[in-house]
Amino acid sequence: MSSFSSDLTARDYDVKIGDYFNRGWEIFKQKAPLFILFTLLLFVIQVIISALPYPLGSRSDEPVPGGILNFAFNVVTPALTAGYYFVAFQLARGRDAVFGDFFQGFNKFLPIFLTALISGILTAIGFVLLVLPGIYLAVAYLFAQPLVIDKSADFWQAMETSRKLITKKWFSFFGLLLLILLLNMAGAIVVGIGLLVTVPLSVCIIAAAYEDIVGLNSVAEV
User: Fold this and answer.
1) Surface-to-core class of residue 142, CB atoms within 10 Å of its CB (0-12 exposed, 13-18 middle, 19+ buried)
2) The whole model's pTM is what?
3) Residue 88 region, left (φ>0) first, then alpha (ψ -120 to 50), else beta?
4) How far is CA 118 from CA 32, 82, 128, in A?
5) Closest listed residue to residue 148, CA positions, set 159, 138, 140
């Protein structure tokens, strides 16, 4: 394990939920139109894919199952959603951000994809077996993707570092995620339109927690 992993898992910290919501809002509102536009883009893509019987470009005499396009989108989804973190971290560092920055996840596609895949599989197995292990891992892997994005950790190092760090205050993080879930439920009430705000805001809140507990790499390091 690298020195940064050892340092992180050895430190003590407090989970300041109210501060994270306030800081997350500060980050979000700096580029709220961009966050909303990107969320809308992802939503529109999902709607279009779900409405297509076959992928675009397939020949009528050689139909391709519509699931292939959906599968391809699922493969790139981790890199796309990682864009929220890339932009949130840039804004948290005091840097500017443009719409194209939401696609920076493709620069670290493999570790981001593997982190999402392996953590998802392990969490699913936990739910199938006894449910509680799945809940534990779903919370414990909260910082895995941010560690890949900010610290350039490999997928297993990021997952284990996140798990060991968050386990120290697991119930506090569980409470944080419950509040974020309620936030998105409230966003869904308004015909789902509120999710255009609450989804990216949720990531900004997690980014704020990561910034406080782990610490972002400096601009020079980036």
Assistant:
1) buried
2) 0.88
3) alpha
4) 31, 16, 15
5) 159
Whether the CB-CB separation of 90 and 96 falls below 8 Å is answered with yes
Contact, 169 vs 15, CB < 8 A? yes
Beta-carbon contacts of 221 under 8 Å, excluding residues fewer than 6 positions away, are none
The model's pLDDT over 110-155, given as tens digits with 9 standing for 90+, comes to: 999 999 999 999 999 998 887 788 999 999 999 999 999 999 999 9
- Helix, strand, coil % in the chain, rounded to nearest 5: 75, 0, 25
CA 157, distance to chain mean position in Å, is 17
Token pair 């973190």 is at which residue? 85
Task: Give dist(CA 202, CA 113) in Å, integer.
Answer: 20
Backbone angles phi, psi at 183, to 5 degrees: -60, -45
